[in-house]
Fold this protein.
Amino acid sequence: MGRRALPKLNPKLDYSDYYDEIGRLPDDWKLSTLFDPTIPLEVELGSGKGLFITTASGVCPERNFLGIEIRKKYANYCAAKISEAGRDNAFMLQGDGLLFFHKFLPDKSVDDVHVYFPDPWWKSKHRKRRVLNESYMQDVIRVLKDEGRFHFWTDVEEYYLSTLELLKEFPVLKGPQPVTAKPAEHDMDYRTHYERRTRRYDRPVYRSLYVRGC
Ligand SMILES: C[S@@+](CC[C@H](N)C(=O)[O-])C[C@H]1O[C@@H](n2cnc3c(N)ncnc32)[C@H](O)[C@@H]1O
């Protein structure tokens, strides 16, 4: 399944308050310049077209949401979407989420980490490019608060099973806990665009949830 072209953005829309680039952050950048640390924070790596961050930030206005997307045009698109929706609890960063987690997210600063339908990198020689690798999972565990949650969904069974195997090496993450899918009530009632596409093709979605122990 290929990717559909992104719809055009309204050229008059100023979404600069919702967008920055990891490559422009100073080395001593602080998360507190974006979000009040007393408010729960959810971080999504690989936001794609931004359905999750746009919807979730509307459903949970009492929490903050940070999306990270490496592809510039998608990161811009997500920022425009959250700006159009008038969210004051969401922000997009363009750049490498793995680097951002490692360098900029403080210990025990995040309540939920979301990774939905990460690029599968099918060929075995490319597998090392997968975002769900040992070093990233160490950062996920470091940044999650006690009882914080790690959400991972994919349509690639092999990626799902090999990640579950990898996560066995981290017993502090309790899971996988069962996640039940509900029927979609409207055309955009999916967690992400990739979930929407996968379910519309009647293909299975593999979902897991882990909770960080204390
Ligand atoms: C297959 S798409 C899924 C998008 C979205 N999560 C969804 O479910 O619709 C994977 C996304 O992760 C982004 N991505 C890949 N590596 C990344 C990284 N290191 N940091 C941030 N985003 C990344 C890709 O650009 C792409 O938009």
Q: What stands out?
A: The two ends are 41 Å apart (CA to CA). The longest strand covers residues 144-154.
